[in-house]
């Protein structure tokens, strides 16, 4: 141990300074699944840090996985069965933390990848959490609210032994929302015999949610976009932005970009997209979506497909929907100068290399979308102390944390000539490994 501070504000634990170890990039796997992408990213960080195979295996392997059967009695009396998962990837820095996803494509490997990304993300923004993620392979659009409530309560009951405010704390992700969190909190609390708001975050304000959580991921995206632009002396209010996904993340990101003076020229959802080169009226677009359920058909805008949106001639592209949309094929068409990853895992390893060769700056998911889990942490702290902060307090603490995480990542990237993703991953992996080693769990 050298005892001197690194740019991460921590001392390296191995004999050599891991941050100056020569980087050897592992070859990307042919498989472009989220798990293959996550494993490749980890292997790259591990090679840079000079960790041995045992530590690499530990970091690659989830601590605990649950696979639960979730039976549902449908409103019409028929029955159905869904598969639910919860993966606690790493808990060395604190309880597992991460969202719950309802989407038909959810499977154990996707949840493993998302849980691993949560570990690095929480470490990058220096939260006292490990990484976890959950999901159910269900299409929420096919079910009534009552059916979704029954599914959620059953899933929560099955997970009772492994979740809790000190062990694993869920939050909304794709296909779930504050209401889902309220059902989880209620089911958990009823089983324990008293109200335990800190078992979930992202819940409604009336049951102990935090101000600012609903928009936190998007606010964080805009903070890091502004920081990345600033490195090239580009003001936020001079750029055009295209956003894929108009849900909790993409929708609020569009609103905040517009509020801050950026021109949002295109957005999309599952059904397709809309574009207006002079800028979309985002407030009016929200009304349209509320009325019709989709951005498609928005008055005064032209249609654009999800794939076309990725190749629009804009300054900033924000993929904020599903994984793996920027591939070896679509990455070639990207014309944006900055890609800011609102979604988890939107860029495959092959696409990452293509974007780097084109000179595109990619602000990686584990940094760019960390604002959500940062305010989840604030919500957990507030619930534990039963004292709530004001919105300006939360906004200020979020801005500070995102700015300082961006600064650490950018400093390391510049120092060691790394991409922002490589630098972010190295910081996240190193902090996680250090916690693991210092607790003596690894000889
Ligand atoms: N919610 C959060 O706090 C955080 C979310 N994330 C990540 O952000 C991403 C989006 O999450 P979130 O906004 O919460 O999810 P939502 O379910 O709220 O919204 C998802 C959006 O993506 C759209 N979408 C779904 N599938 C596709 C597709 N194949 N092509 C184009 N658009 C699609 C949906 O369309 P439609 O409306 O038509 O269904 C919707 O607009 C995910 O990757 C999630 O993991 C990351 C950090 C935190
Ligand atoms: O707020 C949280 O706990 C986690 C949000 C999430 O799932 C994510 O960042 O991907």
TrEMBL record:
Residues 210-440 form the Glutamate/phenylalanine/leucine/valine/L-tryptophan dehydrogenase C-terminal domain. Substrate binds at residues 97, 121, 376. Keywords: NAD, Nucleotide-binding, Oxidoreductase. One of its GO terms (molecular function) is nucleotide binding. The record marks 173 as: Important for catalysis. The keyword Nucleotide-binding applies. The active site is at 133 (proton donor). The keyword Secreted does not apply. Residues 1-35 are annotated as: Disordered. NAD(+) binds at residue 217. Residues 26-35 have a biased composition (Low complexity). It holds the Pfam family ELFV_dehydrog_N. GO terms for biological process: L-glutamate catabolic process. Belongs to the Glu/Leu/Phe/Val dehydrogenases family. This is Glutamate dehydrogenase. It comes from Isoptericola jiangsuensis. The lineage of its organism: Bacteria, Bacillati, Actinomycetota, Actinomycetes, Micrococcales.
